[in-house]
From TrEMBL:
Family annotation (Gene3D superfamilies): P-loop containing nucleotide triphosphate hydrolases
Pfam families (alphabetical): ABC_tran, BCA_ABC_TP_C
Every ABC transporter domain range: 2-250
Keywords: ATP-binding, Nucleotide-binding, Transport
Top-level division of the source organism's lineage: Bacteria
GO molecular function term, any single one: ATP binding
InterPro entries found in the cross-reference section: AAA+_ATPase, ABC_AA/LPS_Transport, ABC_transporter-like_ATP-bd, ABC_transporter-like_CS, BCA_ABC_TP_C, P-loop_NTPase
UniProt name for this protein: ABC transporter ATP-binding protein
Source species taxonomy: Bacteria, Pseudomonadati, Pseudomonadota, Alphaproteobacteria, Rhodobacterales
Length: 260
């Protein structure tokens, strides 16, 4: 579904992404892991159009999408969430969801004056859709809460809910578990798996919690120093000597082996 070919993103002399090539297959929940500074979030930002690549190409199916702006990718069904949730704090949770679909009639002054009935009907449809999403995510009880007043884990669920308000084809989730307690993380994991199995969503997930990755992701891609280091099941990459070395460093890896 997404194919990345020899992608580079440089910041001056620093090569954040350094010749990465990978594929994300349709219908999978693909994990993307690696030590801090491996280039994972930068790779996400290039694929999702927030940063232009220094070189390399990105494809969605057979269509090249290299360098397209985020709003152009949005209309193609490519969505990205962030490590820190970007909610509109003064609006309710339901309103945060309702504002996601693009090209709403109420956005135009002419319609606001002369097409009020049409706007009202559209808002009712969006409200019904938002309520369906909130029920799916088991957070209907916070629908009327201000988004600034809910927990970090609930904000991550709301971000996931935003992707359900449009025709998302692939969703890039950046550290969905950051600052989230284990109970809510399990709820988020359940929602991702249900969206994948019941609605055909494709996901790519950056996460440091290997228990979470092992539960929901297959395959898992490992990055280190801007390159793809390994790919396989969660169990396979955990046992990979090069992956262990990338996380622990050669000295600590050898010390632990000697102790064992």
């Amino acid at each position: 579904m997404i194919r990345v070919e020899n992608l580079h993103r440089h910041f001056g002399g620093f090569h954040a992404v350094d010749g990465a090539s990978l594929s994300i297959r349709q219908g999978t929940v693909t994990g993307l892991i690696g030590p801090n500074g491996a280039g994972k979030s930068t790779l996400f930002n290039v694929i999702a159009g927030r940063l232009p690549p220094t070189s390399g190409r990105v494809f969605m199916g057979e269509e090249e999408i290299t360098g397209l702006a985020p709003h152009e990718l949005f209309h193609k069904g490519v969505l990205r969430t962030f490590q820190i949730a970007h909610e509109f704090g003064s609006m309710t949770v339901r309103e945060n969801l309702m504002m996601v679909p693009a090209r709403q009639h109420g956005e135009k002054l002419w319609n606001a004056i002369f097409s009020r009935a049409q706007i009202r009907e559209e808002e009712e449809r969006l409200r019904a859709k938002a309520d369906e999403v909130l029920e799916f995510l088991t957070i209907s009880h916070i629908a009327d809460h201000k988004a600034s007043q809910i927990s970090g884990g609930q904000k991550k669920l709301v971000e996931l809910g935003r992707t359900m308000m449009v025709d998302a084809k692939i969703v890039f989730l950046d550290e969905v578990g950051a600052g989230v307690n284990r109970t809510l993380l399990n709820t988020i994991g359940d929602a991702i798996l249900r969206l994948n199995r019941e609605r055909g969503y494709t996901f790519c997930v950056i996460e440091h919690d290997m228990e979470f990755i092992g539960r929901i992701c297959d395959p898992v891609i490992v990055m280190a120093e801007g390159k793809v280091l390994a790919e396989g099941s969660a169990a396979e990459v955990r046992a990979n000597e090069r992956v262990i070395e990338a996380y622990l460093g050669r000295g600590l890896k050898n010390k632990l082996k000697a102790q064992a």
